[in-house]
């Protein structure tokens, strides 16, 4: 794992924690959807940058 993939995965997991928190606080659904799209993009980008795929 290199540094950028680690940062992307950790940031994606941080955003997933934010999603859980926002759902518990009953925040607006479009804000939760926007946050989940960002979290998914960070996690996918981090996983795709791993050296395992080469």
UniProtKB/TrEMBL annotation:
Keywords: Membrane, Transferase, Transmembrane, Transmembrane helix. GO terms for molecular function: transferase activity. The keyword Membrane applies. The chain crosses the membrane at residues 6-23, 30-48. The keyword Transmembrane helix applies. It comes from the Bacteria. This is Amidotransferase. It comes from Streptomyces resistomycificus.
């Amino acid at each position: 794992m290199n540094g950028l993939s680690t940062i992307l995965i950790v940031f994606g997991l941080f955003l997933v924690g934010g999603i859980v928190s926002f759902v518990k606080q009953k925040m607006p659904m479009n804000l939760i959807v926007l946050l989940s799209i960002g979290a998914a993009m960070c996690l996918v980008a981090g996983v795709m940058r791993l050296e395992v795929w080469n």
